[in-house]
Amino acid sequence: MIIVLRLNHRIFRDKRITSHVALTARAFLADKLYYSGEKDSNFEQSISKVCKQFGSKFEVEHCKDPVRFVKENKDKFTIVHLTCYGLNAQNQVNKLKNRNLIIIVGGEKVEPIYYKLAEYNLAVTKQPISEVSALAILLHLLNNGKELDNEFKDAKLKILESENSKKVVKG
Amino acid sequence: MIIVLRLNHRIFRDKRITSHVALTARAFLADKLYYSGEKDSNFEQSISKVCKQFGSKFEVEHCKDPVRFVKENKDKFTIVHLTCYGLNAQNQVNKLKNRNLIIIVGGEKVEPIYYKLAEYNLAVTKQPISEVSALAILLHLLNNGKELDNEFKDAKLKILESENSKKVVKG
Hints:
Number of strands of chain A: 8
Helix content of chain A: 25-40%
Radius of gyration of chain A: 16 Å
Strand order of the largest sheet of chain A: 3-2-1-5-4-6
Order of helices and strands of chain A: EHEHEHEHEHEHEE
Oligomer: homodimer
């Protein structure tokens, strides 16, 4: 089971970035996104609508106390924190395959405690990038790329491959 | 040479997403980002500052007429357009390695002409995701992952690997 924990969501500033994190988590086969910060019903509904239309059991839930959440789940999950200051993800990822993971994805600021709570602080490149691309690459490496060929069986709408048009069919 | 063309930037709505596209393009070894839509000096300066501090010759430039830009460069560059409606990127990527590419990355809406102008409409998963993660995965596949071990030689600041703290040194 792979859970993504997105920290410190702010409705006004982060609306689209948090949506991109959630859509990436879903398409790259994470099971659930918890997000802390401001509760955002519009965001939750928009992701729920994507799941209903395009399939998957992916869920989004608000998390009031993310430090407590991590502490309470440290026994059952390996805690991973994505940060450009961490160890190179590509060298650590084999140890994490087939484990239950909580992947912590920062917002604008990340409290120092998460660096301590995480068993693995992992960097996707040693550069300032984006939590969206860092998450995509980590999940891609964990999946051995299988998300690229994945189809959600419960999809009501399916996007078909096309050379130069938009083709969507009922699932 | 790899150019990313980000369409229809809107200062108010897209500020952070376009920044994430640019930072991802830079860290994943694209050479330049052109963006159309509203010219945004703050965005340009913030990316320029990252390049000065952390290295790379990556550049950002506003593009007034992206259709004309693509048409004028079709002879020298292979035009790729990232869209979930396209062909599976993982099956096409070997044809694109070591070519000069313009990778078109949409904003909220993409005019139909880009589907026709592109030699390759490519999908990273057949799901609604994010232009940020789609770009990261396409560049990762094109690079054979070499961006993960890359260091920019002209960096003034370098982030070091660390298990649980932040280490930055002068380059």
